[in-house]
From TrEMBL:
The chain crosses the membrane at residues 12-35, 41-59, 80-103, 144-161, 168-188, 194-216, 225-243, 249-266, 278-297, 317-337. The lineage of its organism: Bacteria, Pseudomonadati, Pseudomonadota, Alphaproteobacteria, Caulobacterales. Residues 9-333 form the Acyltransferase domain. GO terms for cellular component: membrane. This is Peptidoglycan/LPS O-acetylase OafA/YrhL, contains acyltransferase and SGNH-hydrolase domains.
Amino acid sequence: MPQNLKPLTALRFFAAMWVVGFHFWPNLGIAMPAIVGKGYLGVELFFVLSGFILSHVYLERFKAGTFHYGEFIWARLARIYPVHISILLGLAILMAGLAISGIQAGDKLLVWSSLPAQLTLTQAWGLAPHGGWNHPSWSISAEWFAYLTFPAFAFPMVRMWNRPRLAVGLAAIFLIALYIGFGAIAGFPLTRATILWGALRIVPCFALGCTLWLLWKSGAIRSRAGAFGLPVGALAVLVASTSFGLPDFVSVLACGGLILGLGALARNGSAILSAPWLVYLGEVSFAVYMVCIPWQLIFGQGLQKLVHLDSEHMPLVFWLVMVAGVVPAAMVVHHLVERPARNLMRRVEFKRDVVNVRGRLKIEY
């Protein structure tokens, strides 16, 4: 099994809470700080990290010819689909309950025309233009697109196995060019695309993550000082770029440097961001991301109904309770849905026969 890169697992939690802060801040009714206003880039951090981790787990198998696409897709589906479906069902029940209680949660959630795309995880492919349901799930649809097309990312990675710096450079150029070109054509940044262009949004980030893993594997950062300096410097660039309104591609590249540096620290045996409680929060981060909007709806509507406070101008203490409350809500989903469903789905076995044909590995399902 590949090395367990614990700091990168912990990093997922901070990425999720960055997104949570972006979505929850308007409930305070005050001006949003610049770095919070860039919280949508937490999704880009997830996308780059996804490319890095999936390359860490699967790319050597792909190179060796032992990569099994069916098992890969099933494992990825087990990772994301049970929580997604449970949240959809929960939202439908919640809307019904609110309606019975005389609370109108708006008509932007239950968009029945979008349900087929929601059920097939294609809502970020332009197939659900009216949105609705659990909005953050668009990024899970984008992830699903990257999973399905993983071989298209893996093939060029294998070709550039011994040229990782070139691979990273090309991925960075592709990302910058796509961001500039998309913004010029569409009139808005690719980093703000969701239900219409979400599948495209993941492509440059995922590719960057794959190439960064190649660089990490090559041992380009060997010294402990270098491994420590890279994430510190990348974090400084990320804070500066988000605070001073630099182009989003600067922030995304800084996210890549942060991931590469933390991976190097883990390789060098550092315990930074490796505490069990941080790693656990990282494991819960997917549920944090998926439940944040339903929890925001429940808490805001409850506040209005029970104590007659405007959910768009919450007192700070109530807002802090809402932010903190998303974590235990996510823990419930993680332990009651995510983990047991994933473990159950992964019990499915794929029968395969491996035979050698003219010196090549052939997999027959």
